[in-house]
Amino acid sequence: MQAHFLIITGMSGAGKSQVVRTLEDLNFFCIDNLPATLIPKFAELCRQTDEENVALVVDIRGGRFFSQLLEVLNEMEASGQKYELLFLDAADETLVRRYKETRRRHPLGRTNSLLENIQTERNSLEPLRKRATHIIDTTTLTPAQLKARVTELFCESKKSERMGIVIRSFGFKHGLPMDSDLVLDARFLPNPFYVPELRGLTGNDVPVMEYLCRYPQTQEYLRLEKELLDFLIPQYINEGKSQLVISVGCTGGQHRSVYVANKLYEHLRGRGYSVEVSHRDNRYWRK
């Protein structure tokens, strides 16, 4: 996998904080507002510790230290230190609107108007913009679109692997899992609990699987749920969602939900997704 030593800069209000959150989700080690003069020393430390993906935010908040960034970049290039420079930009009117909405003060202070500070910052950043490896203009981007753009640039895995999927069985009588994104209800299926020889088993056991799969409504339910997930999951990935928790419930979380969760897990693994399955309420199962 390609290692990234990424320096992030750009206009205040252009989305640097959200970019950092996205990179953290991609397992980057991120530091915000690092003085420019410390970048070479930090780069050397990363080499010594085999830190692969690092992102540093260096911007106008650094004051007099920020003015040294161009000099630091020249020194890094002369020494053979590889880096990428990501520049975040947005139109002046968009930045003004964002500052008005958040009621935050511009880093250059209150001496001038907000628009004057934005224009001053833009002029001072122009040499860095010309040096940028990547430029992202966030003027028209939604947060989800910005996350998707950053992921596209800096995530080496396949698109289908960028979102982790958790399928969890549970029993409604023990409470709904709080972190669920989707909840599927299997309580209408025939219940093995009322078959004496199956009562002490679980949906992981072959006799319970054979019992459930012989009912047409079980097969139809699985078919429809697989079609639903085949439609929904690509939409979630395109929106930049990092994790999807699918909870499958039955009354006790022992038979039906376990069986259905396992079948959906097999289906999604076959589709190439990064997915895991767990059975929350196994502590209640009878032995």
Q: What pattern of helices and strands is seen along the backbone?
A: EHEHEHEHHEHEEHHEHE
Helix proportion range: 40-55%
C-alpha Rg (nearest Å): 26 Å
**What overall geometry do the principal axes of the alpha carbons give?**
elongated
Gap from first CA to last CA: 46 Å
State which percent range the strand residues make up: 15-25%
Mean pLDDT: 89
Structural class: alpha/beta
Strand runs, count: 9
Quaternary structure type: single chain
Largest sheet features:
5 strands, parallel
Q: What count of helical segments does DSSP give?
A: 9
Poorly predicted residue ranges: none
Strand order of the largest sheet: 2-3-1-4-5
Task: Describe what you observe in this structure.
Helices cover 41% and strands 18% of the residues. The protein is of the alpha/beta class and 287 residues long. It is built from nine helices and nine strands. The radius of gyration is 26 Å and the shape is elongated. The strands form two sheets. The chain has a five-stranded parallel sheet, with helices on both faces. It has helices spanning 16-25, 39-49, 69-78, 92-102, 114-131, 143-154, 206-213, 216-238, 256-270, and strands at residues 4-10, 29-32, 53-57, 84-89, 134-137, 164-171, 182-185, 243-250, 274-279. The longest helix has 23 residues, at 216-238.
